[in-house]
Amino acid sequence: MCASKNDALFDEIHLSDNAKPLIDPNTCATFVVRLLHHARQLWPQAQLPIVRTFAFYLTLLEPEGAGTMASATPRNVQVLAGKCNTFLRLLSLPCRQGPFTSASIQQQAQFELLRAMARNQPVLPVTRRGYQAIIAVQLAHKKTLAERQSAELKAPSWPPWKEEKLGLDSQRGIEGLRSRAMRVMSQMKEAGYAHSRWEEVSSIFAGWDTDKSPTIQTRTLARQPWRLRGRVGNAGHHAIWEARIRATRTVREAWACFLSYRDQGLPPRGSIYTAMAEKLIYRRNALYSNFDQTSHALPGDALETFPEPLSARDLIYVHTEPPTLDELLTQMLSDGIRPQARFLSLLLRHAPSFRSGLEYLSCSDLSNEQIRALCTVWAHKSVYDEQSRKVVNELPAHLFSAFVYFLCKFSTFGELSARHARDAFPIILGSSQMAQGETSTLFSQDEYLGNGKEYRHPKTLAHAIELLRVRHPGSPQAWVFVLSALNKDRVTSRFPNMNRNIQRVIAWHEILEITGRMEYHDIQLGLQGFQTLCSGFSRAVNAGIQSLDAVEEALEVVGNAANQGKLAYIGLACPRFEDMVQNGLRGLKDQFDRLVLPDSKTPSLFGSGRPSSDNATDAQVILPPLLHVPSPAVLHAFVRSLGLAEDYDGLLSLLRWMSQYAAPLKEASDEYLNGAVMMRRTLVAMRLFLEGYQERQSWESLRWTASAAQARGLRGYEHTSEVSPEDSERLSFSDPNLQEAYDIVTATHVWGPWPSDEEVEEYYANHLYHSKMPPRLPLLHTLRQPSVLSVRVRVTRFSTAADDAVIQTQQIPAPGSGNIRVLLLNRPKARNAISKNLLDSLDKHVQSISAEGGTGPTRALVIASNVDSAFCAGADLKERVNMTKEETNEFLSKLRGTFRDLAGLPVPTISAVSSTALGGGLELALCTHLRVFGSSSIVGLPETRLAIIWGGRHVRLPGIVGVNRARDLILTGRRVSGAESYFMGLCDRLVEILPEEEQKEGAAREKVLRESIKLAMDICEGGPIAIKQALQAVNDFQKGEVAENKAYDGVVETEDRFEALRAFAEKRKPAFRGR
């Protein structure tokens, strides 16, 4: 409802002679409204300076006593309050670019405006509209640390009340129980504004249902209040039930809400079906992307649906099992509801097959004319009739983009014949002239490719490109989808006339052609498009590194296409690989300048000289220094492009720029759960490429050699991940590029220390090395910077140990400093039986960790198996047969000593058991502080059946499971399962291994090892000295307070303790150094 003219305009305002604004308040308010609109569309960061400018403008109005305006009449004050609350609402509208990541900017802008309203005399009140705007921003904002802590303590059952797993949990998570959005709603009610239906729905997303039971705090873009008008109390309103379905964690929880809505006899609604379908779709996506194991996200943080609880006790009861997506759609159609609008877009973007997508279109609410316009593959662009053009242009932007994405998703070819080469590469190999009779539709199965259920039309990519030509969408989203499709390997099987290197060079030039079209039509590439551009360039350069002949052949094909006029936006193609690289570098740098520089007149950051701030002014309000703030993933892609092309000057220029704008880059990085990991990876890549990555391709292992380092000018040194610039000598390099890079990184404190050798080795192995890599062995490995509240472990498969090593090792970066040492027992033919050689190797590791004294660099030890059939089968009886009595006694003495030293290590030790651990194998596990078993594990003590007793388990076992259970296990020699072991207290964590995982090679072993490393990561979040003293206090528990007081004396004066106190006061994560 629009306000009347009298209600929206100020009365005449008198201005002082010495502080006159250039514009009157009515004009100023109009400017603010329009500027905020443009900022949401183009430059979200500009919203904050716009509000600051308005706040500064208010101070220029003539004061009258303690007031603000000379004509501070009640009506003017009312109008000003209305304007400010309108601005609050405008600041809550989603931005076109990154609506969720921009929420923090909008929050800052709202807070700035609220402070200005509070400074005004009289104070300007926040109205219902203003409160709703603040709530909307809080709903879109990421969880605070307190809210994340509260979310982690939610029970896996439903409703998700707080679950106290430890005694300390009674005091944890209290602050985050009521989210910020809930607090604002409470303040709104205290201000006298009764809640409406909009607040009811918002409350469900904020973590609390209308009956005061908890839900899952879900990050969402709130609807506009006028769309949810109505009083509270209508429990059957579809918006409330839609919110309940969305504010769940699992498919069964969402299905239970759906059934509750249906069982109450409420009318079927498309929004209810949409919410349920989203849960099904995003659960499928989570399984496909391995989301459960790789994501930092908590429930409500991401779109992906989480898995069901492991325990049957926590499963929510539903009288019918959740349906599949197709079954849900069938039920929806039987209720007379067709997919439409954004639901149809969702289905198209996540269609599991080409036929499924066409079926979604057929059963949707689109007219036959609209489906015809979208699905007709015209023989030639000249015959694309005007009516179809009009229909395509009138489609909603989100639906058009979703359909383009659907086409691009199914644009790869398993087998390629010469007839379809033009369809796989439609820009360069496609025919410019086609017969009029070749017009077909996507439903024409006569031309389908594939077999089984994977049939699809061969011209999907060409059709997507043609649709872009017809519509020329102003939003870059559809264009980026096509760029991503062009960047894929479109021929996935072997094709003799076009190997993968040729494909990638051709694909790079097709990407350049589409990018040129975007530039011609003044369509911004955007950060996502730039990242795709960098990826395409890197792949093309890598193709040239691997096969120069293939690149020359591809460039000849590109040159022929250019001569035929197929590359209208590229012009002449580069005849040589070197020219292609140089032109590509220039193009990437130009695009980066356009993305980040707010003023086209600003010199390029890749020009001569260093970045400067000469253009800074003394203005009261400063505009954001960057037009777009690139995410760490974008920076990483750009660094790879510059590094693969060996553009060292470009790398240094980029590093200088990153250091100059480290603060805004850090703010942007913090909006991503993996932001810290990706930023660190970017710096590691920077060091690797500046040192010369190609030298490593001839190495026999991943270890750095002094000669290779000195070849790039590095004076020999050792630098481990726990050393920081503050407590080590400055490193010196003869290479000036490396020296400058080192100086920049160490001077930019938010980046942490100079990347260590281990980080560079790991990056090279995971992200650069390909066919020339030595044979790799399976090993669970993680590269992460752990957050305070969640741990993610990512599995890759390589080891730094030799193939024939009886124990393979890996160093995994621990939180803060140091590393977690992983030992993989590797005697597959002997089922990891303990031989002399294995015992010697184990003893060396134990002694080296013991010599560190618990202060690093080893923060924790994990012992696991590299063999599926056994953790450790005990003693090697075949080797024992050939031993003399003296050799046997010597072996047993060393074995007991090694196990005794292992049990006494001053760092946490964990054993990961997924299969068999018998006799000495179980003894080995008992020597570690903690044990993680898989449900597939089998453990036992069979020595009495062999007429012997052995080892120290008779001492250790009763202290773990009790005397009676220890007596049972030892005397009977029986074998117990993982579940019984957990029940007895023999293990501390139990990992469920599904039947299909037991059949899959390495699956159970990796799953248990992943959980063990996660446990080690959790432990290492604490201070190293405190962990050491805590272990000692627990070991000496029989001494009571004497042991506890002694342990406390060891931590009370440490630097780590003072750092923890400072971090608590400053509300940040502590950085423990073990001092």
From TrEMBL:
Top-rank taxon: Eukaryota
Protein family per UniProt: Belongs to the enoyl-CoA hydratase/isomerase family.
Gene3D superfamilies to which the protein is assigned, alphabetical: 2-enoyl-CoA Hydratase, Chain A, domain 1, Lyase 2-enoyl-coa Hydratase, Chain A, domain 2
SUPFAM superfamilies: ClpP/crotonase (SSF52096)
Molecular function as annotated in GO: hydro-lyase activity
TM stretches of this protein: none
InterPro entries in the record: ClpP/crotonase-like_dom_sf, Enoyl-CoA_hydra/iso, Enoyl-CoA_hydra_C
Annotated organism of origin: Aspergillus nomiae NRRL (strain ATCC 15546 / NRRL 13137 / CBS 260.88 / M93)
Protein name: Enoyl-CoA hydratase/isomerase family protein
GO BP of this protein: fatty acid beta-oxidation
Recorded GO CC terms: mitochondrion
Keywords: Lyase, Virulence
Signal peptide positions on this chain: none
